[in-house]
Amino acid sequence: MCALWCLLLPLYKLWHLLVFLAALLGTYFLLKKLFPGTEKVIDVPEPEPEPTGNPEVDALTREGKQAVAELRRLRGSIREPSVRSRVEELASLTEKIFADVVDDPQDVPQVKRFAGYYLPTTMKLLNAYDRMSGQGAGDNVSGTLKRIEDILDTTVAAYRKQYDALFANEALDIETDITVLESMLKREGLSGKDFNV
Question: How far is the first Cα of the chain from the last one, in angstroms, to the nearest whole number?
């Protein structure tokens, strides 16, 4: 287009150049409107977690990875912003819960219970929400959607408590260590007012 313009019309004055730039921009937007580009989203799979050598932990981490991927897929397809943010928080907490089992295999029974009931039930409700939110408005549909939205706050709080509960045994160990250290320091005369140089 530039070469054709230069052959047919002059470009030696400022307004010639401005007209040329306007025509160039207009052509660009016209072609963009006529031939819209397609945007492809390439789903890059996350690497498999390193095997820990413990078959129960490895199975749970694989299950957790699949659950988090499904929660993130649901977050992407649900249109309601408040629900999307709660689903993202659920995905983040789920990811942390399953990551904890790698660090502390003693938590396997708790995480199994979480993965066996709470997580599948949550995902079942969110799948129903996603499916029903595309339907027309009706008393049954809107009532069910509202109930699912209401239970999400409770579910997020429960997931937070579940995650916090995984650290109960570690907190108890730390509390015991602190008590023993305080006792030793007192006995040796090295704590607080008892400390003399």
Answer: 89
Tell me the pTM.
Answer: 0.63
Confidence of residue 92 (pLDDT cuts 50, 70, 90): very high
Of 67, 73, 152, 157, the residue nearest 116 (C-alpha): 67
137: left (phi over 0), alpha (psi -120 to 50) or beta: beta
What are the start-end ranges of the H helices in 78-167? 81-103, 108-113, 119-133, 139-165
* Residue whose token pair is 């079942």: 124
CB 71 within 8 A of CB 97: no
With contact defined as beta carbons under 8 Å apart, do 107 and 100 qualify? Answer: yes
Q: Are 79 and 123 in contact (CB under 8 A)?
A: no
- As a whole number of angstroms, the distance between CA 136 and CA 35 comes to 33
Rg (CA), the chain: 30
Residues 6+ apart with CB under 8 A from 84: 75, 78
What's the token pair of residue 38? 């397609």
Q: What is the pLDDT of residues 96-121, one digit of tens each?
A: 988 888 888 888 888 888 888 889 99
Q: 53 — alpha (psi -120 to 50), left (phi > 0) or beta?
A: left
How many H-runs (helices) and E-runs (strands) does the chain carry?
A: 8, 0
